[in-house]
From TrEMBL:
SUPFAM superfamilies: Class II aaRS and biotin synthetases, SufE/NifU. It is an enzyme of class 6 (ligase). Its EC number is 6.3.1.20. The keyword ATP-binding applies. GO terms for molecular function: ATP binding; lipoate-protein ligase activity. Pathway: Protein modification; protein lipoylation via exogenous pathway; protein N(6)-(lipoyl)lysine from lipoate: step 2/2; Protein modification; protein lipoylation via exogenous pathway; protein N(6)-(lipoyl)lysine from lipoate: step 1/2. CDD domains: LplA. It catalyses: L-lysyl-[lipoyl-carrier protein] + (R)-lipoate + ATP = N(6)-[(R)-lipoyl]-L-lysyl-[lipoyl-carrier protein] + AMP + diphosphate + H(+). It comes from Odinarchaeota yellowstonii (strain LCB_4). This is lipoate--protein ligase. Residues 31-224 form the BPL/LPL catalytic domain.
Amino acid sequence: MEVWRVLDTGLLTGAENITLDRVILDARAEGVIHNTFRFLRFNPPVALVGYHQSVEQEIRISYCLENNIDINRRITGGGAIYFSPEHLGWEVFATLDGVRFPYKVELLYRRLCNAAVKGLRKLGLKARFRPKNDIEIGHRKISGTGGTSTGGAFMFQGTLLVDLDVDKMLRALKVPVKKLSDKEVESLKERVTTIKWELGYTPSYEEIKKAILEGFSEEFQIKFVEGEITDFERTEFLSKLPYFSSNEWVYGIRPSGNQDNSLFTVRKTPGGLVKLALSVDVELNLITSAFITGDFFAYPPGIIYDLESSLKHIPLKLEEVSKALLNMRRREFQIPGVKINDFKLLFKEAIQRIKYTRYGLTLNEVNNLFFVNKDLDYFMVNGVDSLLLPYCSKLVGCDYRHREGCTLCGLCTVGDGYKLASKYNLKPFTIVNYEHLEEKLKELDETGSKGYIGCCCEPFYEKHQPDFEKFRTPGLLINIEQTTCYDLGLEKEAYKGRFESQTALNTSLLEKMLYLIFKHR
């Protein structure tokens, strides 16, 4: 039976734990240590973004700073997570052999998660693996997992929820709220569970660790022996800790550009959200830099950086981007659930957007437009006949907040929307909840609508992009750039039409778009 080292590094800071991840993985790749299993915990609590994510987009930075919550970046991909001292992390550091540890990522995930499942069942938990990378009990997530690899070695890690302060997690992170649609659940609180919630008590950490190790021992025929950090690892740790503590690592050194010279697109894939920001030189028609983020996993993670690098200072043309993607296809890599064509479609939309400036739009305005089924050129030719407005932009307490109509009292921006609907002979609808949205989109399909214009926030569009596209009617949506239900963690209430805060429509852009559409017809 093969002998593995077991480490329990106890409570460490975010930077210390991430540094150890890098050090142990590199040491295994270089062959200076044997296969290793590590248990880890964090103190103070930490909000961790995935390797490819932007801290500003995924973490509520001010809340974390005010509440002594560390912020750091994992060396693995995936989405943002909140890790409190109560949580227990587990990690596997080993070499890929094609047998016990398959080269194919999906098979590797399944095998390793099945080992963890065996361990959890020893605690009396009815755990099971749910692809692509979750362990759940009764359809409620108790452990998320993910990994990365280098030089033939891999690290695979899991976060085990022993107990959980859901409210604090919701306030620290932005990502989980956006991911609710992916998990097909009503709320985050109903989607997760913990060992304490399931058992009614909290086993000791020693009991939990013993069960997990027994699960892996049975699955892989391993004998675990407690060990220590080697002198080599300790030296590397002290050398690399300053970097993994730095803003350069945590916040990233890759510029995402600014609203004046950047193009933004997003695409929802089975592997997660993929977001693209292109910095461009309009006069020279060049891509100056590309920034690809999201909650996907990439193996090796450097493939994304390599793609970004290959796109610098090339002509702003789809055929040039296609060449870079073709070279990427020749490399050995895996991005589960995300295809090369998904990247191509992202770039295609971004490049298409710059052409819309010929209508007199700024790039900032173009970035605040979302298209459903058709591009802007379609609307310039065919026009629109309906206006969809969200109830959350109506005055709180208004008699018409949850029903059709508007008194044009001037106390909210929806009144401005209704005035524009009258000016351009559009039929206005106040969307009061998600089911009502589907009902109206179905109605537009059945009546042969040529298209609608509407307003919604970017998180809502990201979450429901496939839902909009399943209806035939083309749509043009304008972003609401304000604090929304997603920022406040209240999207469940909004889904049901119970969000009790007021947003404001971007009426200037709405008016401009209607003017342009009807001017060009």
